[in-house]
């Protein structure tokens, strides 16, 4: 199945990247998710940012569009997908960092040179292809 969605790059004032410790895979990853019917990639990014982190952004800056074999993923429930991912950077975020959607075990900011060892490979690819 081809699955479009959006992922967000959120930095704090110290230029640390926000990561989400996911409850389904137990890995650290980037906030984001799948597109719902009728949404644009940017609308998906805004919704996922709020749902997964409690944050909103004054602006979303489009950074990348990624797809292909390296974005194949098999979920713990057995679903297999090829992701098409719009990558946005959240500019001037506001709100309180909270976990309310049940998808997160933790949220935290990390320096790009000291990311968690147990990390979703797609998140690493997104970071490498977009930021490094």
What do you see in this structure?
The chain is α+β, with helices and mostly antiparallel strands and 132 residues long. It has one domain: Nucleoside Triphosphate Pyrophosphohydrolase (Alpha-Beta Complex). Helices cover 17% and strands 42% of the residues. It has two helices and eight strands; from the N terminus they run ββββαββββα. Strands 1, 4, 5, 6 and 7 form a five-stranded mixed beta sheet that branches. The protein has a three-stranded antiparallel beta sheet with strand order 3-2-8. Strand 2 and strand 3 form a beta hairpin. The chain is globular.
Q: Would you tell me the overall average pLDDT?
A: 94
Q: Percent range for helical residues?
A: 10-25%
| Total separate domains | 1
In what range is the share of β-strand residues?
35-45%
Q: Kindly, what is the distance between the CA atoms of the first and last residues, rounded to a whole number of angstroms? A: 29 Å
Gyration radius, in Å: 14 Å
What is the CATH superfamily classification? Nucleoside Triphosphate Pyrophosphohydrolase
The overall strand count is 8
Order of helical and strand elements: EEEEHEEEEH
Please give the count of helices: 2
- Poorly predicted regions are none
Secondary-structure-derived class: alpha+beta
Can you tell me the CATH topology?
Answer: Nucleoside Triphosphate Pyrophosphohydrolase
Q: Main beta sheet: strand number and arrangement?
A: 5 strands, mixed
- In the CATH scheme, the class would be Alpha Beta
């Amino acid at each position: 199945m081809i699955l479009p969605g959006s992922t967000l790059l959120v930095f704090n004032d110290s230029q640390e990247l926000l990561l989400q410790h996911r409850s389904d895979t137990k890995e650290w990853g980037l906030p984001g998710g799948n597109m719902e019917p009728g949404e644009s990639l940017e609308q998906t990014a805004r919704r996922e940012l709020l749902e997964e982190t409690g944050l909103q952004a004054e602006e979303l800056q489009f950074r990348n569009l990624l797809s292909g074999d390296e974005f194949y993923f098999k979920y713990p429930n057995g679903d297999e997908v090829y992701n098409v991912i719009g990558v946005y950077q959240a500019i001037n975020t506001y709100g309180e960092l909270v976990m309310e959607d049940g998808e997160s075990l933790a949220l935290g900011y990390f320096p790009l040179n000291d990311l968690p060892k147990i990390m979703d490979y797609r998140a690493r690819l997104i970071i490498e292809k977009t930021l490094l």
